[in-house]
Design brief:
single chain, alpha+beta, 3 helices, 6 strands, about 25% helix
């Protein structure tokens, strides 16, 4: 049964982007949630980059980028910063485009080895979450391009502001 994501309290939003969808690249076999937990706890499968942006509309937001580098990704480098209110509002408008896009908990259907989790007042979406009634849907080429554009914009904004 899919997990229901409730909007965050008091208008707060959270945008998380993880480079590494969470499945092994050597197998096209679907991965169960239990297997994902095992994979995500294995040092060789640690996501290479995590970006998290938390804030409220019309206000500045906090950004944190965590990079896992080195042998078996065991070295962790963290950068933090602030995103200005104007950029926050632009970002929130941008991520709205992903609302209603297909998702799949077992497969990286967009093909960019990236997972985006949105929890805003208007959009609760996760491309790695099962959505009831969405089974078997695949993204269009336009969906894939929009996903990539949003992903690139999130990363670019985070890199510009996190030091």
């Amino acid at each position: 049964m899919p997990r229901s994501m409730a909007p965050p309290p008091s208008g707060e939003f959270s945008i998380r982007l993880t480079k590494s969808f969470g499945t092994t690249k050597t197998s096209s076999t679907p991965v169960s949630l239990r297997q994902k937990l095992i994979i995500s706890n294995h040092p060789g499968q640690t996501p290479t980059e995590k970006t998290e942006i938390i804030g409220e509309p019309n206000r500045s937001a906090n950004v944190k980028i965590t990079n896992h580098v080195g042998k078996e990704n065991q070295t962790i480098l963290t950068k933090e910063g602030q995103i200005q209110a104007d950029d926050v509002n632009t970002l929130l408008d941008l991520v709205k485009q992903l609302a209603g896009f297909p998702s799949n908990p077992n497969e990286d259907i967009y093909g960019f080895d990236t997972r985006i989790v949105l929890s805003t007042f208007e959009v609760q979406w996760d491309n790695g979450e099962e959505i009831e009634g969405d089974e078997g849907k695949n993204p269009t080429e336009e969906n894939k391009q929009t996903f990539k554009d949003v992903s690139d914009s999130i990363q670019s904004l985070a890199r510009q502001t996190a030091r």
